[in-house]
Amino acid sequence: MTIREVAKAAGVSPSTVSRALDPDGTVSAATRERVQAAAEKLGYRPNRAAQGLITGRTGHIGVIIPDLLNPFFADICKGVQARARGLGHAVFVSDAERDEGLELDALRTMAPEVDGIIFCAPHMSSEELQTLDRLVRKPVVLLHRKEPGFASVTADMVEGMADALRHLHALGHRRIAYVGGPRSTWAAQERAAGLDATAAETGVEIVHVGSVAPHFDGGITGAADVVLASGATAVVAFNDIVAFGLISRFSARGVQVPEEMSVAGCDDIALAGMAAPPLTTIHVPKAHAARAAVDLLFRILGTPAGEEDAQPLQRVLPTHLVVRGSTGTIKVD
Q1: Which of 12, 64, 133, 149 maximizes the CB count within 10 A of its CB?
Q2: Do the beta carbons of residue 85 and residue 55 sit within 8 Å?
Q3: Handedness of CA 291, 293, 295, 301 (dihedral sign)
């Protein structure tokens, strides 16, 4: 099926068909609807490669994430894909496996094939990020990381951690452990800063257990034993997956949650509400963040897509605490 056959069916010229099927093309609403109906009836699909030779656009955007096995980043990918599909773009995804070298490889490989890149939670240093303009030569929006000179979408993790600590303080906890993630990451630094600032405000003592891999094993190994030995009555985990590991280890040691140890996580992945007990956690608006990142990217590309048109290039989205069964008052004998 060719563009000429669609043009004949719709009663317009081939150039009008091309404009009507381009989200940025200038045609009347009635003409666009007639052309799209004819294309759908005939089973016509535009040739992206051919269009790219004319427009310089590929019709693709890229997403680089650190860990596709983590449900948080899987949700981000799903949100990006849903928004991009609605804007007529396909999505290429690369899992960098929390490796700076793989991040660079993904950027180099992906850049020629896409119109822009959403770079999610990059592990590379600020100095390396500042070289991306020369390396990639395509627009980049950071997601889950803030850096001067970059458009970005982040969640307010400082306030999110503050909410978690205030909640535990209200339950009577005065010595609270924190099992952190990789120290070099922006997210880990923001979360630790939120806890420390609110600890000073509430008088709570924070026991920093250390840095663990942001996986289930990160909670199930020595971190849980250190928490128990610290005298803490509650623990905040870097993310929900680590929190699940902690709860599993506590159970193996005969420690009841929340009767003997309260546990809070971060991200509010879908599994948090299905755990036993259901996990108290900081809700990060993943779908909103993904949509905002795509819209910012399209804004930079010169094809505004919606809600981000009037927003700053560095968006900070609100978080909130979801209280479930893994936190409670201190057990009194």
Answers
A1: 64
A2: no
A3: negative
